[in-house]
Design a protein that fits this description.
5 strands, single chain, alpha/beta, 5-stranded parallel beta sheet, 43% helix
Length: 162
């Protein structure tokens, strides 16, 4: 693939991501927020069933969605996980803030040079932006908490270690 085609492909993928994020944000803004009960959106349109093979942070959502099904429109809690959050997470956050939705964030890890030699700073900058907008943060472990504070900064939400 030529360099021009590579840049064009990257440009089009960013346009697609932004458009999908805009559509998702508009659908959230146009929906009503439930006043009572627990109605959770995991930041994704579909959570795989427990019978489907998955990996990483999505496994938590597979189990949680058995009790708290994924509500993609009418929800009062947004719960996302650092190891598997959507490309348009920022758009979702902006739309949910206007509805006074609580945002829970599960911090599993961070990017670092040995794991991601190029792009680790950019990945952490994006993750920090999401983390610093949460109401509550859950850390996968004490190590995840220390790494997160070192690479991403201290969040405003009260920390909880799972």
């Amino acid at each position: 693939m030529s360099r021009a085609n590579s840049y064009l492909s990257l440009f089009l993928s960013k346009i697609k991501k932004n458009f999908i994020g805009w559509l998702k944000a508009k659908s959230i803004e146009l929906s009503t927020r439930p006043d009572d009960g627990i109605h959770v959106f995991y930041g994704m349109e579909k959570i795989p069933s427990l019978r489907e093979i998955s990996k990483g942070g999505i496994i938590k959502f597979q189990w949680l969605s058995e009790t708290f099904p994924n509500k993609t429109r009418k929800f009062n809690i947004l719960y996302m996980v650092s190891s598997n959050y959507p490309a348009y997470a920022e758009s979702i956050l902006k739309a949910t803030r206007s509805k006074k939705t609580k945002f829970l964030w599960n911090q599993n890890g961070v990017a670092y040079p040995a794991w991601m030699p190029s792009g680790w700073k950019e990945a952490n900058t994006r993750m920090a932006g999401v983390l610093h907008n949460c109401d509550y943060v859950f850390y996968q472990s004490e190590f995840a908490k220390k790494s997160s504070i070192h690479f991403l900064g201290k969040p405003k939400g009260p920390p909880k270690k799972l």
